[in-house]
Amino acid sequence: MGKKKKVILPPELPQEVADDEVEVSDEDVDFVRENLKYAKFLTKLDTNSINRHVTRVADHKEDELEALYEKRNRKAALLKSKEEDERYVDPVDALPIKTLDGELQYRTAKGSKSGDITNENKSASWIKDSEKDTGVVKLTKAERRLKMKKSRKEAKKLAEEETKVDPAEEKLHSEVLAKVEEDLSAEELFAKKKIRLAEVGMALIENPESNIKSLKELLQICDDDDHNIVKLGLMSLLAVFKDIIPGYRIRLPTEKELEMTVSKAVQQTRSYESTLLHSYKAYLQKLITLDKQPTFHHVAVRCMCSLLDAVPHFNFRESLLANVVKNISSSDDVVRKLCCEAITSLFINEGKHGGQATLEAVRLIAAHVKFHDCQLHPDSIDVFLSLTFDEDLGKSESKEEKVKHKKKRRWQNQEGSNQVQGSDRKKARQELMVKTREEVNADFKAVSFVPGSEERRRMQSETLSAVFEMYFRILKHSMDPSVSRSKVNAVAASGASGSHPLLASCLNGLGKFSHLIDLDFMGDLMGCLKKLAGYSDHFDGSSSESCLSVSERFQCCLVAFRVMRNNLDALNVDLQDFFVQLYNLLLEYRPDRDRGEVLAEALKTMLWEGKQHDVQRAAAFIKRLATFSLSFGSAEAMAALVTIKHLLQKNSKCRNLLENDAGGGSFSGLVVKYQPEAADPNLSGALASVLWELSLLAKHYNPSISSTATSISSMASMDPAQNQVYLSTTSPLQAFKDLSIERELFKPTGKPVSLNRKRMRGKDFVIISPDEVQKVENTIDEEEVKCRLEEHFMVLRDIAENERLRGELNHTLSSIKLYKEYKRQKKQRDTSNT
Amino acid sequence: MAKKLGKKARKFAKKNLQSVLKRRRKIKSMFKRKAASRRVGNEDAAEEYEKVRSEQHVRGNFEDGAISNNQLDNLFVEDDDDLNEDVSDSDGYLSEDPECPYISESENENDSRDKSDHIAFFEQNKEIHLEIAKQKRKLERLLEKDPKFSEFLESRRSDLDQTRSQEIYSDDEGNTSYLDGVAIRGSQISHDDKILTGHTIDVWCWLVMEQPDGPAFANLLNGFRAASRYGINSDDNSSQKIPNRDVFSKILTFVLCEADGIFRRLLGVPDSCIKESILKLKSTSEWKTMRPLMKSYLRSSLFLLNQVTDNQILVFVLSRLRASVIFFTLFPSLVGRLIKILVHLWATGEERLSSSSFFFIQDIASQLSSDCLDTCLTRTYNAFIAHCKFVGPTNLKHLKFLMDSVVEIYSLNIQKSYQKVLLSVQQLASILRQALKTKDKEELKKIHNWQYINCLDLWVKFITCNFRDHDLQQLLFLIIQVIRGIAHLFPGPRYVPLRFKCVHMLNHLSLSSRVFIPVASLVFDCLEYRGNSHSDTTQRMQVDFSSLLKVPKQFLKSRDFHAGCVLSAVELLVAHFIQWSYHISFPELATIPLILLKRFHEKTNVESLRRLVKRLIDQVEQNIAFIQKKREEVSFSPNDQASVECFLQLEKTGPPAPFTQYYSSILQNSRF
After folding, report:
1. Is B332 in CB contact (< 8 Å) with chain A?
2. Where is the composition biased (Polar residues) (chain A) (predicted)?
3. Tens digit of each residue's pLDDT (9 = 90 or more) over A298-352
4. Which residues of B touch A587 (CB under 8 A)?
5. ipTM of the complex
6. What is the SS3 assignment for B355-385?
7. Scanning every residue of chain A, which has its alpha carbon at the shortest distance from the alpha carbon of B463?
8. What is the pLDDT of residues A660-698, one digit of tens each?
9. Which residues of B touch A633 (CB under 8 A)?
10. Do B470 and A632 touch (CB under 8 A)?
11. Which residues of chain B have a CB within 8 Å of the CB of A772?
């Protein structure tokens, strides 16, 4: 038997049991000897398919063909084990319950076998399903149930029978099983374990109440030495928990409650809940420990994320959240993405947990950011963008409630007035009724996850303050030069861009939630942004090493404007500084390095959407943008031109720029001459300039730009009184995107037009000068050619001679060779003659 | 027809199946089966042959076979009035008039001078000679020892022939078979090997010059043919033998120099004429007699082009043959071959050869039919694409020449070439699209290589050369987008050379098309990028941008690289500015670059760069002041495009402004 095993065992099996270690009892050997037929299948085993199967298990995908092989093997293995079961169980006859004689045992085995076969195909899909989203799992679960209806009846019956069997018997049973398992070769063991997993899992999903104890078995399987089994076990448990966890939070009974005598049903429920809770706890603990092991890191994170996504309302959410947040800025892309998705779904589906989890998550992330000193991957902050804050939530609902309350009161009053003449007993009953109703309501409130609006508002404001606290922390951190300097190296390792990886997403978030910022913070925030936007000015000597990229500085201006716009009436802060920054930042912008979208958006927010601008400033920006578009690509130029057009339309006085009035025009402002290098738009004296750029832009290679430029320059003839008539609809951002290189290249090229020849061209050379011809002709030296020809002749002749000689040589040599053959033939002739 | 076929078969047999013929005579059995195996042997022989000769050579031979069909009917024409039809079988061989004298003269065939030329072969030959003598002696001894062996040897000889010594038709074998072949044919004409002596040639030349339509010309052309094929087929059935090198060179030079003139005189064709008038010749009576002569001449010349490897000779042949280019109109089958040979020589030959081949191609493309132009367009483009994969300091000049010549040929007939160019540019664009979409490393590599860039450069040149005369607006727009896309796709200091190339191309396009293409932003980052200023000066590496697309990593930090970047950036900026140096909005155009340049000037600590940038700043400011001064005098507004166009046009044609002078000084030590 040992020999045979050797053949079967694939060498690369992860958990190989050496032959020596396998204890083959004498009984076994005898048994095999006696029943040679039983062992016969071992010789027939298809080692190839087994190997393939074993090595492929890791990726859970079994083809049909392989499944077929497997099935066959498993069946065979099962048969054998069953026979052995019988063999060993019967003689011992230790079964305490008489009815469970050999025959019944046999039937059980048979049943499990048949269930097995049906399960096999499903187990694969089931495991795969468990990796998917909850919604999908639920759907497939339903399908699975439908499909299983046939086998269900029998299985149920059997399961019930099984549950009746008391623990002692089960223990024995498992002991026997363990013994048998030892005898099986490793891959059979693996298959068997898998089958067991599937069986238990299916049973649990089918009937959680009665099979809840099997959770422990599943947990035990997860302690296996085989990594693959552990992974499978974890995934199976995930699927089971996702399915059986109830829609409420389990509160374990207090001691006092335990003392009370309760009905059997309640008792059962209590034990069920406590088992579930304990197993869940154990599972989570396992996940948390496994999370630290690199081999199981992915699986553990995946399980935790799916759990957080599926059952955020359930007990132990805190530890789950803590662990997910811990991994949120992992350097591993897959892990990070999983965690971010889990958190995002937590934020989006607040209904599942009533907002409590959101607050916790935000707090945890904020703490995480604080702990890591703002050196995290931006993804971890980007999740906040999916937060939703319902502004009207508090007010409207409280009103509604009030109304409801009033109505109720009225109704109660009415009722009361109606019942006034009723008897005392009736009154007492009424009171009791009211009391119980209130009690029930309170209980319902406590249990259900729709907290009161007050509560929700409180949570929301807490969440908000946590978010903003974190944002401000990041801003403050970015402003601290000493920190950023020292951390540059650490950041480079983390793979994030720039020395402030979180700043960009922080600014994004601020932009998004700008309307929710507390007015008290506003002043500080603006100060911060102002400082950040003009950051490079503080480090005159090393502006290129300044810690903020141009995009980030654009964003600062952008956020400031968003904030201000959303709180228009509340504050009166001078935004002049930000205009100055934008004016100068236009010079810093580099295509392909900085994000053009941010530039376009800044133009849109600050200039295009803004209200009336100061004439000086508007003119300065018009001039600067026109100059800007002379140096940059089409997309940027287009964004600038759209802005110019808009500004010109809104500011009729600026249209003076389009006309060349001798003597500087009537409206030349403070500065008489245009200063292109001035840093302050108000002091540039742009009103004194003329937009000559447009004449050059009209020659732009891109037809849309040249036409826009022409249309702008024709605005000069527009009636000054004619304000804001043709407001263009394309925003700078849109214009930028339309003309970006990616978009441009994908535009279909027009049909090739037939070529119009503008002028006839003679036979002149286009590039090469005609002298070349002369040069070539002149260099021919007849004498030289003659010599070369003669040389050539000699070479040819020698080659010919050489060939001829070689031929002759070969011929002679072959003749000599033939002599040998001749001699041999002669010998043959001689021998044949004799 | 039967006769023809029979003759063809005979010719084939004589050429290829000598041993079979011989064996048939001797054993008279198993002919057919052996013939098949003989074929195999022949193929082996061909392989061997290739090793000895160049590949090209074989191709030439193949083509001989391919168009032999064409020649057959020609031969028929000749056969009618031909005395020795056997020899005329061979392509291009002309009938000879017996009147024309062969002057026999005991000439010292191998004068001592001859031998000293190629020592290597000479020595080898000598060795082989000795070896042969040794082996022969051995064989003789064996024969003496065993007289019966000679019989056996005789019986096996034919087999031996099959397996051995076929690759080279050994002399005595060839001779015997040849003679045998003659014998079988029944020797219509006994003809002695006509040895061409120097004297004979002299007389013929004299006769031809005196009397062009005389028989000597045909003889001379036969001699020319023999000379062009000298050393290739020793079994060649042309009866003329070239005894020594004087004769060889004399015959070749004379025919090449004079043939064109003689043909023109005979046919009455003026030196310059167009292909229509040549085509008219076909109906004339002279043409009938001249046709075989001319064909023989052209064919032999082509053959010579394939054979010869020496540049001098090739250039000579090309220049002579080019005079007769118009005659190729009459032989369309030869033109294809000619173009093939020429394109090969053009793409691979050295400078002079390459240019003379190009001029020939250009003549063909412009003077012959439009089909020829098509072939030239495709072939030159393909050859260029195949040869521009690598750029180094060594082949830079050659590549430039190739590019210029392709542009030249494509500019001959824009109507025809436009579609091809558009197709090619669209192909470039689609490759770029793919790369932009996927950002895949492999896709990026397709763009980031010399083939792509050179192809782009080629069409940029094409557009710059022809934009003035043709409406290439669509092509221009597409190619600008492609170039900008490339610059966008490869950011970062490592790709600075590639981006500079893009800017350079854009400048060119802008200059020729007079559209405005903003390029300043593409060079700004070079003015900001600052290499490690403390880099070790010991490790000075010369960075040559012209043969680089991507900077090696070790260069990135070097000071030289930084300096090179700034130099190139300045150059490109000046080239950009010069186009608009007289434009009314020059001050605005220069505003932002000027601000950045000033900033750079403040910050840099490399003195040479400071000086360079300072000079640029001064020049630009000077020009700005100039334009501003002029601008204040005008009264029109920016929307008056016509007046804007006229602005400073007068000054432009006048003496060069300081900025123009500055530009030409920059241009002198240009890196592009």
Report:
1. no
2. 413-422
3. 888 888 888 888 888 888 888 888 888 888 877 788 888 888 888 888 888 877 7
4. 592, 595-596
5. 0.71
6. HHHHHHHHHHHHHCCHHHHHHHHHHHHHHHH
7. A766
8. 765 544 454 555 678 888 888 888 877 778 888 888 888
9. 484, 488, 518, 521
10. no
11. 355, 359
Q: In the structure encoding, which two tokens stand for residue A457, read together? A: 């508002």
CB contact under 8 A, B135 and A812: yes
Residue B506 domain-assigned?
Answer: no
Q: Which residue has the tokens 């934009």?
A: B467
Among the listed ranges A209-213, B94-98, B474-478, which one has the minimum average pLDDT value?
B94-98
- Show Cβ contacts of residue B672 under 8 Å, excluding neighbours closer than 6 positions: B500, B501, B504, B546, B568, B571
Q: Is B305 exposed, middle or buried (0-12, 13-18, 19+ CB in 10 A)?
A: buried
Number of domains in chain B: 1
Confirm whether B646 is domain-assigned: yes
Q: Per the domain annotation, does B611 fall within a domain?
A: yes
Looking at CA atoms only, how far is residue B5 from chain A in angstroms? 32
B588·A761 Cβ contact <8 A: no
CA distance B161 to B42: 11
pLDDT at A734: 82
Residue of A nearest to B309 (CA): A792
> Does B318 map to a domain?
no
Pairing assessment for the beta strands B240-241 and B194-195 based on DSSP bridges = parallel
Q: Does A748 contact B at CB distance below 8 Å? A: no
Could you tell me which residue, B593 or A16, shows the higher pLDDT? B593
pLDDT band at A90 (very low <50, low <70, confident <90, very high): very low
Tokens of B33: 């089966």
**Any chain B CB within 8 A of the CB of A449?**
no
C-beta separation of A487 from A373 below 8 A: yes
**Alpha carbons A786 and B312: distance in angstroms, whole number:** 10
Name the residue with tokens 């300097």. A485
To test the contact with chain B by mutation, choose from A806, A823, A824, A829 the residue with the greatest count of B C-beta atoms within 10 A, namely A806
pLDDT-derived band of residue A194, with 50, 70 and 90 as boundaries? confident
C-beta atoms of B589 and A791 within 8 A: no
Instruction: Tell whether B57 lies on the interface with A, counting CB pairs under 8 A.
Output: no
pLDDT given for residue A201 in this prediction = 83
| Nearest-angstrom CA–CA distance, A373 and A644 | 42
Q: Name the nearest CA neighbour of A702 among A756, A644, A637.
A: A637
Determine the number of helices (DSSP H) and then strands (DSSP E) in chain A.
Answer: 36, 0
**What's residue B76's pLDDT?**
30
> Two tokens at B338?
């000619």
CA-nearest residue to A774 within chain B is B356
pLDDT per residue as tens digits for the range B555-564:
777 777 888 8
Judge contact between A284 and A234, C-beta under 8 A: no
A447 membership: H or E segment, kind and range: helix A424-447
**CA distances for B290 relative to B95, B266, B293, angstroms:** 12, 8, 5
The reply to whether B521 touches chain A by the CB within 8 Å rule is yes
Closest Cα in chain A to B116 = A794
> Which residue range forms the structural domain that includes residue B625?
524-672
Q: Inspect the interface and report whether the beta carbons of A755 and B510 lie closer than 8 Å.
A: no
Within 251-310 of B, beta carbons closer than 8 Å to A belong to 252-253, 308, 310
- Residue whose C-alpha is closest to residue A531's, from A494, A569, A478, A567: A478
The reply to whether A97 touches chain B by the CB within 8 Å rule is no
How many contacts does A have with B, using Cβ atoms within 8 A? 330
Compute the nearest-CA separation of B385 from chain A (Å): 19
In this structure, what DSSP letter does residue A617 have?
H
Could you tell me if A247 and A313 are in contact, meaning their C-beta atoms sit under 8 angstroms apart? yes
Closest residue to A794, CB basis, from B117, B173, B407: B117
